[in-house]
Amino acid sequence: MSAVQESPVRASQDATAAPRYSFYIIPFKNEPFARSAERLARLGYDALEIPGNPAQYLSAETRAVLRETGLAVSAVCPQAYGPERDLTTAEASNRARAFDYFCSLIDMAAELGAPAVILGPMTAVRRNMPESAPAQEWEWAVETLRRLSARTAGTGVRLVIEPWNRYETHLVNRIEQGLQLARDAGAANVGVMGDLFHMNIEEQDIAAALRLAGPALLNIHFADSNRRAPGRGHIDFVPIMRALREIDYRHYQSVEYLPPRFVFEFGVPEEFVEPYTMETIAAMRRAWADTARAGRPQ
Known about the structure:
The model is unreliable at 1-15 (pLDDT under 50). Helix 1 packs parallel to helix 3 (60-69), helix 5 packs across helix 6 and helix 9 crosses helix 10 (274-294). By secondary structure, the chain is of the alpha/beta class. The protein has helices at residues 33-43, 54-57, 60-69, 92-112, 134-151, 175-185, 196-202, 206-213, 237-246, 274-294, and strands at 21-24, 47-51, 72-77, 116-120, 158-161, 190-195, 217-222, 253-255. It has one domain (21-294): Alpha-Beta Barrel (TIM Barrel), CATH 3.20.20.150. The protein is built from 10 helices and 8 strands. Strands 3-2-1-8-7-6-5-4 form an 8-stranded parallel sheet. Helices cover 41% and strands 13% of the residues.
């Protein structure tokens, strides 16, 4: 069975239930994990997406906080996409280091009960030109996906290709390219995700791209066009929610808004913490409710 045909599994929501909401905690990186988790639980989130740093988050404290708040871990997201975490670089030693790193994230996800590991587009961040022949890089991506898929055997963890915009990668920019990579790998537990910030740059029609992904859509990142909270840019979220209803999307609706990169060094503005976190879940619930009032697509 191909990745595109595989039906959703572990940690997915019932098709008739209200959505489950998750939040990638990277804007909270300068505060204790327990404080971030408490905020998300208090504001109505069901899960959090955790940075791919096993040394920091594979701990008794993390497990205790998750138990106390009732939050699940929806996915593990890689950190520091530099040359040593580039799965298709021309440097073989760095490809090997990247493979080992993603294996550690599979182990981390399995230990924390997370259903997914996000792979990104298989390149380092901002490597938007090939280092080798494009066909060779694609071949490395396919081979690596197969090896990582084999590594997940018995864990229940699935692998998620995330297209990024053209300014951050050259290899996988659109959903259709991610689907092709998954098909070429032929691994049943490999799918794709949509990040609305990137999709707003690359996709002609965001909702149509989500429909194209269908059951291969394993995750989605919500943010507005300027990567602020939904409602603070120009994306219309109602057609997106309608597309998710149409394909019976059964996984978490996750949030990934980001402040400008430099502010992490000086402290994240308060608006990105409590206010945006509250606004975001309210905006997503409104958009979902609006599609219900309009009637389910046929």
